[in-house]
Amino acid sequence: MKITDKLIKEISALAKLEFDEKSAELMKADLEKIIGFVDKLSEIDTEGVEPLIYLNEEVNILREDKIKAVITQLDALKNAPQKDSDYFKVPTVLKK
Amino acid sequence: MNVSNKYEVVIGLEVHAQLLTKTKAYSSDENIYGATPNTKTSVITLGHPGTLPKANKKVIEYAVKLGVAVGAKIRERNEYARKNYFYADLPKGYQITQDKTPICSGGTIEIKDDNGKMKEIKLTRIHMEEDAGKSIHDLDPFNTLIDLNRAGVPLVEVVSEPDIRSANQAYNYINEVRKLVRYLEICDGNMEEGSLRCDANISVRLKGAKEFGTKVEVKNMNSTRNVKKAIEFEVKRQIALLENGEKIKHETRSFNAANNSTISMRHKEEANDYRYFPEPDLQPVIITQNYIEKVKKALPPLPKELFQKFTKEFDLSDYDANILVDEKGIALYFNSLCNCTKNYKMAANFVMGSVKSYLNETATDIADFTILPERLAQLITLVDSGKVSNTLATSKVFAAMLKSNDSADKIATKNNWIQESDSSALSEFIRQAIVKYPEKVEEYKNGKKGLIGLFMGEVMKLSKGKADPKLCNQMLREILDK
Question: Does ipTM surpass 0.85 in this model?
Answer without folding.
Answer: yes
